[in-house]
Design a protein that fits this description.
mainly alpha, binds zinc ion, 3% strand, three-stranded mixed β-sheet
């Protein structure tokens, strides 16, 4: 359902900072995908030890990743995820197909990243977001939605409107409203910014996309 948020205008999106936003930024990392997993299959040693002892897979904690980086470091560097992000897991599982699992808190997203893609992103520390995190994050998310990147992205798990607590859905609502009110804007950027209703990918869809 469309929100009644009228606070965002064309001037909030059509700025040099938004139109030139870098993703990933060299300092603050990725805001959205496709985010590479440079170490698929990597597990920290403490987790491997626990599996060998108990025969069961246990939850991977942030301390397990820190310990693993020292004891059995992955072959390739982990990438940085900006704390200001859209709360959707944008790890590229089979490039260009991204994961798509959606969360309503950064803690839930971090837990998912540690447990499902442990070799992909560096642990996010408890330090507060920096000014650069926030500005790069917001500008990149605005460009992601404005450019149709979000609308056209291919996800394994369809995120729909995006998580309730994410700004992505709010940006889509605002851009679709602006495009209805401003023909010049609509000509320039289009009229659809939300994802089109679609189902999650099946195994045969993925094979077809990968050309197998
Ligand atoms: Zn994921």
């Amino acid at each position: 359902m469309e929100t009644l948020d009228l606070s965002l205008t064309r001037a909030d999106f059509e700025t040099p900072e938004v139109l030139n936003a870098c993703n990933p930024d060299f300092l603050t990392g990725y805001v959205h995908g496709p985010i590479p997993n440079n170490n698929p299959g990597w597990l920290p040693l403490a987790v491997i030890d626990r599996v060998l002892q108990s025969g069961r897979v246990s939850l991977i904690k942030a301390s397990d990743i820190t310990d693993g980086l020292a004891r059995n470091p992955p072959a390739n560097p982990l990438v940085t995820l900006n704390k200001e992000n859209g709360l959707v897991c944008d790890i590229a599982i089979y490039d260009p197909i991204m994961c798509g699992m959606s969360f309503n808190t950064q803690a839930q997203l971090r837990k998912h990243l540690r447990n499902v893609h442990p070799g992909a992103t560096a642990n996010i520390t408890s330090r507060p977001k920096s000014t650069a995190d926030i500005s790069n994050g917001i500008n990149s998310l605005k460009l992601w939605v404005l450019s149709g990147g979000w609308r056209d992205a291919i996800y394994m798990y369809e995120p729909g409107r995006g998580p309730e607590k994410s700004v992505i859905g709010r940006y889509c609502d605002a851009l679709e409203r602006i495009s209805r009110e401003d023909l010049d804007f609509a000509h320039k950027y289009g009229t659809q910014f939300h994802r089109r209703p679609c189902r999650s990918l099946s195994a045969s869809d993925i094979e077809e996309l990968l050309g197998k």
